[in-house]
Amino acid sequence: MDVAFNEVSYEYNDAGTTVQALHGVTLRVPAGRFVAVVGASGAGKSTLVQHLNGLLLPTKGTVEIGDVCLPEQKKQLQPLRKKVGFVFQYPEHQLFEETVEKEIGYVLRMQGVSKVEAAKTAAAALHTVGLPPALLSASPFQLSGGQKRRVAIASVLVQQPKMLVLDEPGAGLDPASKEALFQLLCNYRQTNNASIWVVTHSMDDVAKYADFCVVMHNGTPLMVDEPAAVFQAGDVLQTAKLALPKAMAFAQKAIASKGTIPFLRDAATLADWLIDRKGGQQ
Question: Is the pLDDT reported for residue 280 higher than 80?
């Protein structure tokens, strides 16, 4: 789904004080992208993405998500939220049903879908997130942290959203669980031609998975571009208080600031670059 923010500002009241969380946000992101929203704490990242399915509505300006324009078309919020799935940070803290099957199928049952159809769809969603069908009858509270996170995501995927928005999806997960989770998101995007928006503090995840990046600073986008361009913009990184991905930081030390380094997604691309560089020096 195409997304457009048009001069968006968002204000809220905090103990009698007006706080401007977003101001003058204008950006365009085409459908089908894996978007990373980055920035320091308090930069407006979560506030920005909560406008994508109408959890928050602009104080000024408009947000266009597909063919829905907010706040003008507030009557379209319910159908929009079926198309835009939102996963909060630590979503496993919101699990409450007695079985995984009931947890995943809860939204469908609330929409009047039959128990049989809800159970069938829940099983399919569990498969999508890479968990075995045997877990359908298990209590979600007996699962590992990574499994709970996947069940929470499956409960959003049952509606087959065209856009999936996740706030810090890798927070608190061990490296293997985080890798599996991000691979799940990549697979869902490819299989369903969906857009993925992720709020993250991990520049390694941005470099490895994202193909579009929104750098937030003081409630407004500082830069909206591909990660390769963002990580080459030293002034932007400094202003937004962002570090280089580990692969690029290592490469920077390796050349001792002599010359420039290319965009390096991960350890594998770093290794290739070091080998090529060594060969070129012989």
Answer: no
